[in-house]
Target: (Mediterranean fruit fly) hypothetical protein
Amino acid sequence: MDKMPSKQFESKPWPDLADSDDSDMENEIDVDKLPPLEVGPNENRLQHTYCLWFSRKGTHRATDYSKSLHVVGRCASVQQWWSLYSHLIRPTALKPYRELSLFKQGIKPMWEDPANTKGGQWVIRLRKNKIDRAWENVCMAMLGEQFLVGDEICGVVLTTKYPTGNQIN
Model:
């Protein structure tokens, strides 16, 4: 019997992110030093490799924002994305002032990143009962290069803000 290939996505377990109010976890992964992800022959390669980030707003001063960013995982194919995404808690389960960010690898979800310094943002505010499907749709559009603006869009960010609702930037 043939041996099954190992999973090619990378992820880091983040237990109880929805309920964790402890001090920030150590950000042990330096995403810039990770080797390229391998894409298997039966996988559908994405145009870019993407990193999924998690952060808690307000846990650090603006100058230390990068310390609140944590790499959850990365993907280079459709199959790797679904392997990663299927293990995530849904946005409606996150506590207020949490962020999920899906950005092209090499670009951090912060204004200070050189790829973002001249950028802007679109903000979409949604009721909590609409956010899970909207986040999934925006992520799929990002991964599938459906925005039709070339390389202008670096990533998407979901921010939970209650009770007024959630927003996607």
Remarks:
- The chain is about 15% helix and 25% strand.
- The chain has one domain: 43-168.
